């Protein structure tokens, strides 16, 4: 078993995270429970920042908060001096509620609404990553209305097929995101943006996909963007101050995954930027990146309680837990694989092969297939590792299951940072149907 960050097996044979016994966490805060190892988040954040610093490169590391956005997480991001990437009014609102420095907020999205753009403009956030022509028109109108100039990056689609799940590919030509580099859209967009007085074009952006294990995609993206930068320098005299290469750095979920250290991605990017800059005679821009998963993914562990089981002779042993696709949609959506252990019996012999079923009324609600565990009994605590990214943030209330609580652990302390939803929370927006009011 691979234990991440501060996780270890303590003297009771229990899983311990951040110096806190996971079994105690389950008892105190209930299950399902998302537990975050804050020291590991800090270590990852510093890893990115220090690599840029070591190479003396001006950079911004913006945490892609879609991976896990809560007020407490945004606070940690601020403490570590990172920037913050938001993709909706809700994520922006969360950042503002955490008093995150507005000038370090970047706003993404392929269909930002007028209200969302207005919010970003009124709050004077750091920059808007413009995705399409409709957004340029809206920005023209709104910057005029509010008499403001907004810093902007242009999101470009470089036409790169990174090796990852189809649903999390974003840089290929057939994508809903950004202006295409090949078919003239990017050229049209830059002209439109440069003619807009309320827009200060800081630079360009691309994001090639998520859970990527190779550096080649980032190298190719850098090359493609630099060749466009050279063309624009020569044809329209535009030289970007910022080159944002997005996120997507892969992490280890199971032993099948072999990620490279974050510093290596950054080093390869820096090297390619320097090389392209020298070869094409384009000044070295500030480099921005947007890691999400690689900052929080392996820092998260979900604790579940074991409940029922079903034996299907000669086929399978189902063990059901008290959560499922409602708190982690990734296995159902991407066939994502995870590792897990019994947090209360870490040293026991693994004597059976089981498949972990969720409690939703859906056959596809399976979290793990063919997992080796000690014979699991009701009340055992199953710890599912590396659930920190896109678990809580993609959670739903399917079957009207309340969303679990979130606890941060660090240096032996545990703090509740998101309360468990209650049944009252579930119906709090429901209104009774008043037949008398029917027209
Ligand atoms: C524009 C953009 N930036 C950053 C990210 C973060 O990606 P990851 O969590 O894979 O680092 C994403 C998600 O894929 C994204 O769409
Ligand atoms: N939500 C996805 C990744 C998409 C990233 C956002 N563009 C995942 O869980 O892997």
Automatic annotation (TrEMBL):
Coiled coil: none annotated. GO terms for biological process: lysine biosynthetic process via diaminopimelate. Keywords: Amino-acid biosynthesis, Decarboxylase, Lyase, Lysine biosynthesis, Pyridoxal phosphate. Pathway: Amino-acid biosynthesis; L-lysine biosynthesis via DAP pathway; L-lysine from DL-2,6-diaminopimelate: step 1/1. The modification N6-(pyridoxal phosphate)lysine is found at residue 66. GO terms for molecular function: diaminopimelate decarboxylase activity; pyridoxal phosphate binding. Residues 33-388 form the Orn/DAP/Arg decarboxylase 2 C-terminal domain. Substrate binds at residues 293, 330, 334, 362, 390. It is an enzyme of class 4 (lyase). The keyword Transmembrane helix does not apply. InterPro entries: Ala_racemase/Decarboxylase_C (IPR009006), DAP_deCOOHase_LysA (IPR002986), De-COase2_C (IPR022643), De-COase2_CS (IPR022657), De-COase2_N (IPR022644), De-COase2_pyr-phos_BS (IPR022653), Orn/DAP/Arg_de-COase (IPR000183), PLP-binding_barrel (IPR029066). The keyword Manganese does not apply. Its cofactor is pyridoxal 5'-phosphate. Its EC number is 4.1.1.20. Pyridoxal 5'-phosphate binds at residues 248, 290-293, 390. It catalyses: meso-2,6-diaminopimelate + H(+) = L-lysine + CO2. The active site is at residue 361. HAMAP family: LysA (MF_02120). Homodimer. Belongs to the Orn/Lys/Arg decarboxylase class-II family. LysA subfamily. Specifically catalyzes the decarboxylation of meso-diaminopimelate (meso-DAP) to L-lysine. This is Diaminopimelate decarboxylase. The lineage of its organism: Bacteria, Bacillati, Bacillota, Bacilli, Bacillales.
